[in-house]
Amino acid sequence: MEVPCVRVPRKEGEETRHRLAEEDLIDDDYEIDVEDVSLYIPVTDPEAVDDDLEIVARPVEERDDQVMPADLLEFDPSYERLGKAVLLDEDDPDRAEVIADAVLESDLPVETVVNKASKVKGETRVRDWELLAGEDTEVVHREYGCEFVLDLAEVYFSPRLATERHRVVEQVVAGEHAFDMFAGVGPFVVPFAKRGAEVVGVDVNPDAIEYLEENARRNGVADRVTAINGDVREVAADGEYEYADWADRIVMNLPHSADEFLESAVRLAGDECVLHYYDIQHEDDPFGPGERAIREAAGPEYDVTVETRHTVRSYAPHELNVCLDVRLER
Questions:
Q1: CATH code 3.30.70.2580 region(s) in the chain
Q2: Does the N terminus or the C terminus of the chain have fewer Cβ atoms within 10 A?
């Protein structure tokens, strides 16, 4: 089977392997291969590999000796990976402990195991976690070449949305004014800035804003990022901030209630602005409610063109998480 690999001269192999390991990009399911003067290192996400490294598709051997949690259990456990943390969602505490033990005994590069102890709650959308292994709930996550530090117990973050975030990021061009109305720790803000945009991120959670500022520094884009702790409706209405008519691109990733903020989005939008509007709706009409709400909020001041109707994922039985990419033209 062909898999994406980084090809480097053998003399640079150890340095490159260490570099990819630091980025959490090595695909441990496959063996590193050697041929003539080249080393081939399998990677999980070729798009996140730095541009100075060569990517090739190559057949490599699967690893036979890697012990996974399922190898130590009588079942295949369900979990998410976030950096060097494993996230469980188990109602049975005894079963969670058994899975945590197997994760730590396996060959997964994991230091922390947590189990969900509550649903997402409150205005800041955080949840409670039970710490089963590790010192705390702070983790470092790498995504498409960006590094994010965050505390699971203090901020909201979903690794499942990485592909969707990247889809939007690829639309950004240098020099844009971009505004993330619910910025969190910066998974849209930071890569937007890395593409050369000037970005404002707002969030009601002060811990998220602290991490956003830290993540902007970590990724070398602090000079292009403004982080504001507050309700975005107040920021949009407050002349002190001077962001009315400012944005070329706006992200509204607050499914279930983004429609409550459309008036503010219209106030922030410049003469031409792309709006990324996230929603959760019944599968019978997943896009209609959002599109109608946008047209009502933006008209008659703006012409509204829906450029993309995109299904992000299944959210619940008969419910879909969707995104509308909408162009507003005054």
A1: 2-59
A2: N
What pLDDT, on the 0 to 100 scale, is given for residue 173? 96
CATH superfamily of domain region 69-136: Met-10+ protein-like domains (3.30.300.110)
pTM to 2 decimal places: 0.81
pLDDT at position 47 is: 86
As a whole number of Å, the end-to-end CA separation of the chain is 51
CATH T-level topology, domain 155-329? Rossmann fold (3.40.50)
Three-state secondary structure along the chain? CEEEEEEEEHHHHHHHHHHHHHCCCECCCECCEEECCEEEEEECCHHHCCCCCEEEEEECCECCCCCCHHHHCCCCCCCEEECCEEEECCCCHHHHHHHHHHHHHCCCCCCEEEEECCCCECCCCECCEEEEECCCCEEEEEECCEEEEEECCCCCCCHHHHHHHHHHHCCCCCCCEEEECCCCCCCCHHHHHHCCCEEEEEECCHHHHHHHHHHHHHCCCHHHEEEEECCHHHHHHCCCCCCCCCEEEEEECCCCCHHHHHHHHHHHEEEEEEEEEEEEEECCCCCHHHHHHHHHHHCCCCEEEEEEEEEEEEEECCEEEEEEEEEEEC
In the prediction, which pLDDT does 14 show? Answer: 86
**Region(s) of the chain under CATH 3.30.300.110:** 69-136
- Which residues of the chain have a pLDDT value below 50? none
Could you please state the CATH topology (level 3) that the domain comprising 2-59 is classified under: Alpha-Beta Plaits (3.30.70)
What pLDDT is recorded for position 51? 86
